[in-house]
């Protein structure tokens, strides 16, 4: 069995500047933001065309000021040439949710043959720095992590209920201590009217994937929703999923207020182009 590893790649860029006019310090604009991979785990599974992927977002109300995007791909172990087309979750649905944690999920048929496979996921985020009445500087970064898993004939089928067993925790990518927000309304380069301020001094934020409650009911609801959206064929077409959901509501899925289907697929080729060299 391969050991789960967590290589972090940080890519930074200075975006633009504006004028800071207001500092927001309320609890609704602060907290520790974290994204965890709940499934798959560093375990062995039978080949499947319906491998679920589940992520948990802690403090999802910080998605908008952090301008967060969560994306992923699957590849053979340490092979960043033969990857699946990168997929990105709909960030707008995350920031508008009152559920905490907020579960993102998808399904793939990529790892349906024997071998060692790997999930690589990215969290793209941004923050700003400045004081009232002074130029406001925006920075965008990206961090990534990987989890390896084995696919072998005769092993147990992928099952989300396995992630609910006592003591099971997800794999964290990083944690960000957001202390407040600044008014970003004057910037045409920021997708929100507020930008996050991240603490740059100790005590540093520490990851806590075990804080996520992933119980049997949540696992069942996600599994039911994936069955509806895929029709049993592993599709990740968000448009088709939305159309089917509107006609065939599943009570279990309706009760899963903390989960939402990803919408759309995006090409992140430019970001991933240097991955083979950087993580080698």
Explain what you see:
- This is DUF7136 domain-containing protein.
- InterPro entries: DUF7136 (IPR055560).
- It comes from Penicillium brevicompactum.
- Keywords: Signal.
- There is one protein chain.
- This protein has about 280 residues and is an alpha+beta fold.
- The protein has a single domain (about 15-280), classed as Immunoglobulins (Immunoglobulin-like, Sandwich), CATH 2.60.40.10.
- It is about 15% helix and about 35% strand.
- Strands 2, 3, 5, 8, 11, 12 and 13 form a seven-stranded mixed β-sheet that branches. Strands 1, 4, 6, 7, 9 and 10 form a six-stranded mixed β-sheet that branches.
- Strand 9 (about 115-130) and strand 10 form a beta hairpin.
- It is elongated, with a radius of gyration of 19 Å.
- Residues about 1-25 and about 230-275 have low confidence and may be disordered.
Blueprint (SSEs and pairs):
Layout: E1 13-19, E2 23-24, E3 31-39, E4 44-45, E5 51-58, H1 63-66, E6 69-76, E7 87-88, H2 91-95, E8 102-108, E9 115-129, E10 135-151, E11 171-183, E12 194-198, H3 216-230, H4 238-247, H5 251-254, E13 259-260, H6 269-272, H7 275-279
Parallel strand pairs: 4-10, 8-13
Antiparallel strand pairs: 1-10, 2-11, 3-5, 3-11, 5-8, 6-7, 6-9, 9-10, 11-12
């Amino acid at each position: 069995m391969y050991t789960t590893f967590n290589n972090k790649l940080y890519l930074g860029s200075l975006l633009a500047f504006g004028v800071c006019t207001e500092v927001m310090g309320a609890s609704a604009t602060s907290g520790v933001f974290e994204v965890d991979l709940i499934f798959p785990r560093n375990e062995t599974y039978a080949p499947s065309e319906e491998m679920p992927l589940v992520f948990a977002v802690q403090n999802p109300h910080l998605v908008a000021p952090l301008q967060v995007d969560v994306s992923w791909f699957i590849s053979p172990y340490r092979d960043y040439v033969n990857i699946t087309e990168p997929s990105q979750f709909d960030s707008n649905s995350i920031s508008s949710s009152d559920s905490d944690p907020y579960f993102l999920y998808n399904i793939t048929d990529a790892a349906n043959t024997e071998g060692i496979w790997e999930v690589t996921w990215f969290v793209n985020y941004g923050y700003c720095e400045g004081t009232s009445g002074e130029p406001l500087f925006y920075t965008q970064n990206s961090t990534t992590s990987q989890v390896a898993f084995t696919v072998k004939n005769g092993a147990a089928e992928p099952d989300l209920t396995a992630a609910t067993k006592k003591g099971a925790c997800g794999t964290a990518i990083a944690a960000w201590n957001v202390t407040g927000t600044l008014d970003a309304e004057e910037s045409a380069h920021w997708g929100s009217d507020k930008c996050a301020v991240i603490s740059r001094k100790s005590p540093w934020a520490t990851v806590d994937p075990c804080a996520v409650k992933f119980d049997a009911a949540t696992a069942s609801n996600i599994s039911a929703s994936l069955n509806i959206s895929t029709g049993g064929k592993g599709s990740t077409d968000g448009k088709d999923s939305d159309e089917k959901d509107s006609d065939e509501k599943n009570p279990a899925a309706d009760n899963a207020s903390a989960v939402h289907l990803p919408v759309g697929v995006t090409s992140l080729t430019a970001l991933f182009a240097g991955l083979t060299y950087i993580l080698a």
